[in-house]
Design a protein that fits this description.
About 2% of the residues have low confidence. This protein has 230 residues and is α+β, with helices and mostly antiparallel strands.
Length: 230
């Protein structure tokens, strides 16, 4: 398994440089008409998303060094940040996004950077695998003394073998996902690795018309004290 991670890490480093060059080339174009400006914008955003996933792959190896500290994290602020970054993708691709916050516990014990990536990858999956005119849902709620972030899509069903891996608590490696074309399972692999590091429970629910991915995080003791005093 360690050799597989090292291989992924080498590939990530090899990919990062050309992706950065592609982004820079796109930014260097000038005097473009409206259509070409749109193409340039797409090139930049696609390369930036790819670079983000490459950076996440590099972080997987760094998890062993314990560099990502656990701390009280405002869960809604993390979700809001991801929504600001990906919201335009939903509108651009004619996908609706439903958001509901009902959690009373405002702080969870997590690493903000890693939690951001978990929510980002789940939400990006939801955008990709919902059809035009359908919607995705992001719900944050309290459950059994923890805070659950759940992201629901209305795309093709998640294969049973992938569901079992996620139910077990982690995904061994990026794999292609049948009925979800274009997916290597990379986002799920990253999300499961980061969730496991944070001692968070990650899971998936199969629906007849899509899939819900979720991560459950322990409520911060600081949050519990705050709630008690107020």
């Amino acid at each position: 398994m360690e050799k597989e991670v090292d291989g992924i890490l080498v590939a990530a480093h090899e990919l990062k440089a050309p992706l950065a060059v592609l982004r820079q080339l796109a930014l260097s174009f000038s005097d473009l008409n409206f259509k070409n400006e749109h193409i340039r914008s797409e090139m930049v955003t696609v390369s930036e998303r790819a670079i983000k996933q490459v950076n996440d792959l590099v972080k997987i190896r760094r998890l062993e060094d314990g560099l990502f500290e656990m701390e009280p994290v405002a869960v809604r602020a993390v979700c809001d940040g991801v929504l600001r970054e990906l919201g335009y993708l939903f509108s651009h691709n004619k996908r609706d996004l439903f958001i509901k916050y009902s959690n009373r516990a405002k702080l969870v014990t997590a690493n903000r950077e890693l939690l951001y990536s978990v929510v980002y990858n789940f939400l990006l999956n939801a955008m990709h695998y919902s059809g035009e005119g359908t919607r995705a849902e992001l719900v944050v709620k309290d459950t059994n003394g923890r805070v659950k972030i759940m992201i629901r899509d209305y795309g093709p069903a998640l294969p049973i073998d992938v569901w079992r891996e996620i139910k077990r608590g982690w995904v061994e490696k990026p794999t292609s996902i049948a009925m979800r074309p274009g997916s290597s399972g990379l986002g799920l692999y990253i999300a499961s690795k980061f969730s496991r590091y944070m001692h968070a429970k990650v899971g998936a629910i199969r629906h007849r018309d899509g899939t819900s991915f979720y991560v459950e995080l322990p409520v911060s003791r600081q949050a519990s004290l705050y709630d008690f005093c107020n």
